[in-house]
């Protein structure tokens, strides 16, 4: 079951200014490096009438679409790998940073903006979105610009009994999602999306196209969960597809506080990680808890299982529905019945973490939280700022307990009962007071400190949070120390291995952003280097 718990209290011109020279140099370089003139039609500068719409097209967090948000000198929308190679070369030559966007779901907008106000170019992979499914071999090649919904749609059109363990939000870009790990309805059965990547094609800092064999074991390890925007630009991923039944069972049971929701949540956290791998579970609160689950089996199999494992919920046959695996993803995301498959292809779905103004944070829980702590938490959801706030509890266990935390960069495996995603969103007219919502989120996060993981307080890289630390703007001897503050929270001891890989493949730190893995600079003494990597 997917033990989730939601708590919702519910062209190429440029204006003449100081920036004209770098962008004109960049554009001239592109024209020289590109093998034909087609690249000119794929580049948008701020004088282009389509620039704003292209920039905002897949910007999911509207906090980073305001007039004060730093914007790129240019947006490149490549059709071929050669266009990316040219853009990387020209950005390096002219000292421009690169931001790579697949679906635009970076919670802090780092795939299309910068907190540092440095000159940068966005490489938007929206045109690189092909999906090729091989049913006989149970594999798929998917380009990084495809969405999870597009991937699922292609799979389900080819087979009703194959799936892939990625997220439930159909607008997630495959590139960013897999770069950070990626969990969804099947992760207790099959692990993360990144755990099921068996090959990839990556453009490195030198412009070379590398596959699993040519990039080597360490780099291939790093790109499967080590975070996007650090090691290069992944063009495409080869995925191992997994078996799913033709029909799965879903249910949603809602309980108010007056119906003992707090006791049910308290009970849930002690058993969710022990459910069979076939059960994927989810819950939600409006000061009401909504327990939503997907079971890889029939209603007849699920009911006695729930009576044994979680009788307090009171699940009955009438609460349950059977549907395809693809439909169950939409049900879990949109809470509507039997959405048409075309919904998977809609890139403009709105939720609490897409196409809205929001702030999010994450936590991992290793010991059950006392009922009294939940009661203190609920009161915060009655505050004005919390009218569209939510908490999503995702139960672990199953396959996640079987994978060593060093096997992939994503380290949050055995020992975790569940993870928490906190979100609060607000309307455009309220954005002038956005800080009050951000402050509310931080108060809730601080309140939870005694009840979540410690030393470090862990976080999930795909739920990026700049509050936990950022890199220095420029390369310096302190870059490693600054990055380690946030790095061990996302990656635990895997952070040092990621640093080693970065130092080998991109020693000059070309691919970088506010939370990218830094290289160890050559100015470190050998003894200092050894001490820092072993600490």
From TrEMBL:
Q: Which residues form the FAD-binding PCMH-type domain?
A: 68-244
Recorded GO MF terms:
FAD binding; oxidoreductase activity
Keyword NADP, does the record have it? no
Organism domain of life: Eukaryota
Query: Which positions carry the signal peptide feature in this UniProt record?
Result: 1-20
Report the locations given in the UniProt record.
Answer: Secreted, Cell wall
Task: Identify the keywords attached in UniProt to this record, alphabetized.
Answer: Cell wall, Disulfide bond, FAD, Flavoprotein, Glycoprotein, Nucleotide-binding, Oxidoreductase, Secreted, Signal
Which cofactors must be present for this protein to function?
A: FAD
Q: Which residue windows are transmembrane per the record?
A: none
Q: Please report which protein family the annotation says this sequence is part of.
A: Belongs to the oxygen-dependent FAD-linked oxidoreductase family.
UniProt-recorded name of the protein: FAD-binding PCMH-type domain-containing protein
Organism equals Gossypium mustelinum
């Amino acid at each position: 079951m997917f033990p989730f718990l939601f708590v919702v209290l519910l062209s190429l011109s440029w204006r003449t200014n100081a920036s004209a020279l770098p962008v004109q140099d960049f554009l001239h370089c592109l024209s020289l490096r590109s093998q034909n003139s087609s690249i000119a039609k794929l580049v948008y500068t701020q004088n282009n009438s389509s620039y704003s719409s292209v920039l905002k097209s897949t910007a999911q967090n509207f906090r980073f679409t305001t007039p004060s948000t730093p914007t790129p000198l240019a947006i490149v929308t490549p059709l071929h790998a050669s266009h990316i190679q040219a853009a990387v070369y020209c950005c390096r030559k002219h000292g421009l940073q690169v931001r790579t966007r697949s679906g635009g779901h970076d919670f802090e907008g780092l795939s299309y903006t910068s907190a540092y106000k440095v000159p940068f170019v966005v490489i938007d992979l929206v045109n690189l979105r092909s999906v090729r499914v091989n049913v006989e071999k149970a594999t798929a090649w998917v380009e990084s610009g495809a969405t999870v919904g597009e991937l699922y749609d292609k799979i389900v059109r080819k087979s009703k009994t194959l799936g892939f363990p990625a997220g439930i939000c159909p607008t997630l870009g495959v590139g960013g999602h897999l770069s950070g790990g990626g969990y969804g309805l099947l992760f207790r059965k099959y692990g993360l999306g990144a755990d099921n990547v068996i090959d990839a094609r990556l453009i490195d800092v030198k412009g070379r196209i590398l596959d699993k064999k040519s990039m080597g074991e360490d780099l291939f390890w790093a790109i499967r969960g080590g975070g996007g925007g650090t090691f290069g630009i992944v063009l495409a991923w080869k995925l191992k597809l997994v078996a799913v039944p033709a029909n799965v069972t879903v249910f949603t049971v809602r309980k108010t506080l007056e119906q003992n929701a707090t006791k049910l949540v308290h009970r849930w956290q002690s058993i969710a990680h022990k459910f069979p791998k076939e059960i994927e579970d989810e819950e939600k609160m409006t000061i009401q808890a909504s327990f939503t689950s997907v079971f890889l089996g029939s209603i007849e199999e699920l009911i006695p299982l729930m009576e044994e494992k979680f009788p307090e919920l009171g699940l009955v046959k009438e609460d349950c529905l059977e549907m395809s695996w693809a439909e169950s993803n939409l049900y879990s995301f949109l809470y509507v019945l039997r959405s048409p498959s075309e919904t998977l292809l809609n890139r403009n779905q709105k939720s609490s973490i897409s196409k809205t103004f929001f702030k999010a944070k994450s936590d991992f829980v290793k010991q059950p939280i006392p009922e009294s702590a939940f009661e203190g938490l609920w009161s915060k959801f009655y505050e004005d700022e919390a009218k569209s706030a939510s908490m999503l509890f995702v139960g672990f266990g199953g396959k996640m307990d079987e994978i060593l935390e060093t096997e992939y960069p994503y380290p949050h495996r055995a020992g975790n009962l569940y993870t928490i995603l906190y979100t609060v969103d607000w309307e455009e007219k309220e954005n002038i007071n956005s800080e009050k919502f951000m402050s509310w989120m931080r108060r809730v996060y601080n309140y939870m400190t005694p009840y979540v993981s410690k030393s470090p307080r862990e976080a999930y890289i795909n739920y990026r949070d700049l509050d936990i630390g950022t890199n220095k703007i420029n390369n310096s001897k302190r870059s490693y120390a600054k990055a380690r503050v946030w790095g061990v929270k996302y990656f635990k001891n895997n952070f040092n291995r990621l640093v080693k890989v970065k130092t080998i493949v991109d020693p000059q730190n070309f691919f970088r952003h506010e939370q990218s893995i830094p290289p160890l600079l050559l100015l470190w003494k050998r003894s200092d280097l050894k001490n820092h990597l072993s600490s």
